[in-house]
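Hi L.,

As promised, Chloramphenicol-sensitive protein RarD:
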Amino acid sequence: MPRVDERRAGVASGLAAYGLWGMFPLYFPLLEPAGGLEIVAHRVIWSLLFVAVLLTAVRAWPQVRATVTDRRALLVLSGAAVLIAANWLVFVYAVNSGHVVETSLGYFINPLVSVLLGVVVFAERLRRLQWVAVGIAAVAVGVLTVDYGRPPWIALALAVSFGLYGLMKKLVRVAAAPGLFVETALVVVPAVAVLAVLHARGEGTAGSAGTGHLLLLLSSGVATAVPLLLFAGATRRIPLSTVGLLQYVTPLMQLAIGVFLYGEPMPPARLAGFVIVWIALAVFTVDSLRNARATVRRRTAEATPAPV
């Protein structure tokens, strides 16, 4: 029963994390008239303070000190901090400029980008169906390039930046809250500098657009940190194959918001591109589930004592 309860808690945490990320296209327009740079700067500053309070509550500062004194971990987290900040900036720009559908495409193809990064960086060998899925996704990108009249650079930038961010996190084993604090602290000085420059030019909105706007900007710290912490809790409790299935909640929600709430166009050629992406993901998911089951059966067989 405890194991069942753990899995239920893990699934609930995963759904909550991906559900919150899926609603971000509804949240960021509320932060206007702040621009993308100002929003990202506020996300950095207030998420740092929120995580600092959390670390104090759970007495996890020794883990932060251990991470800071580890040169390799600090270098890797520096790269992760830059990548996630770039991901945030592209996402906020896309949402506030009417490209929510394209953001959903980025998170649909992110798993396949992560697979390719595993091949390039870790020299992993892909199974046949994984190569098929990657090939189908490449066809989809070609179809969407023709439809958009340009490469879907927003989707590709989101997929690559988040895939590289996940790669960086894989290279260093740090608990969620301490790792998030260190990452954020590494980019807090540039964030403060950005806000200082914006306010010096009279372009900052934190003190000039009303109390409600200021409170919304402050809430960006909680909105940033909570889904990341929920995601970390999910990955500790449930298999990665389950996490992989749950991750499609986010782009599905973003696609629905873009098409049905914001009325973004979905011409036949674009819909065809998305359908091809979904076929690639279906192939990839079926292969992942088959491989996970085969691994479980093999481990069970190895753990079973031979008959006397």
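The chain has 14 helices and no strands.

Thanks again for sending the construct details.

K.
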